[in-house]
Amino acid sequence: MISRQTTGFSTMTTPALDVTGLTKTFSGFPAVRDVSFTVPAGSITGFLGPNGAGKTTTLRMALGIIRPDAGSATLFGQPPTLRALDRVGFLPEERGVYRKMTAEQVIALFARLKGVPAVEARKRAAAALERFGLAASAGKKVKELSKGMAQKVQIIAAIIHEPDFIILDEPFSGLDPVNQAMLEDVILEQAAAGRTILFSTHVMAQAERICDRIVLMARGQKIFDGKVDEALAVVPRLVTIGVDSDDDISALLSGFGEVTRAEKDADGVTLWQIALKPGVDPQHVLRACVEAGVRLTRFEPVRPHLHDAFVRLVSAGDPLQPVEGH
């Protein structure tokens, strides 16, 4: 897996995407309600939320595919005109390409439609098929490919013209774990080449591994917009402490946070778990235990995950009051 730290960032100040107050209702159902966010140029932004949160509808409005009831969106500071869309590569949620054409033909066709010369289009198609592990299937018709292989062809078709801005709607859906990891690497490679990435997913772990920023959606509304670390900060840090005695250390620990559990493991070690107060460093707890003569057998800070942050943000209150990162 490529590290996110190896990728570069654009110095452009105009956001790749700027969404303001997008709203859409279908047959009286509010699918998207007053959603606003930006995607900085050169970033990898995850657009996250459960199925039915309004992610796909928001992306379609941002690209001008469907008309919003209210609000607006710009691509690189311009309305989503055909000229602006030439700088965008889009993988829609609905999968489907020309099934009677070969994989190589489909990819070359999409490149040509975006203005890539024929010889260069074929060259890029061959290289991309090799990168995605599809070189041996280049001459097969799409209808002869597995679902996952056909999906990789469609992903290649979305990025073959080397767009400035890549938007992928649920790109990991339908891929096995090996190909999911490969796609994560491809996303990082595209970002390293200076391209902006926005992808939607309901799998938080993928976004946590590769994103700079995230936008969280629930029930058609934005509930968070900011850096990954800022989202993780809403989850209290947990520390598990193993003690080789029956001593009650709850009074010692309570000064640092809420003691959430005390139980014995199979070896008779008492395990305490504490949810730290904001700003408390786990090392402060360790130092206090050592100074108090507590016989520690285990001291393990538990790293919060984006899934935990999402659950907390959704359950914390009304999504009409979104949390903003910095």
TrEMBL record:
Q: Which InterPro entries match?
A: AAA+_ATPase (IPR003593), ABC_transporter-like_ATP-bd (IPR003439), ABC_transporter-like_CS (IPR017871), P-loop_NTPase (IPR027417)
Residue ranges occupied by any ABC transporter domain in the UniProt entry: 17-244
Signal peptide annotation: none
Keyword field: ATP-binding, Nucleotide-binding, Transport
Task: State the source organism's domain of life.
Answer: Bacteria
The GO molecular function terms of this record are:
ATP binding; ATP hydrolysis activity
Would you identify the family this protein belongs to, as annotated?
Belongs to the ABC transporter superfamily.
Protein's name according to its UniProt entry: ABC transporter-like protein
**The organism's taxonomic lineage, starting at the top:** Bacteria, Pseudomonadati, Pseudomonadota, Alphaproteobacteria, Maricaulales
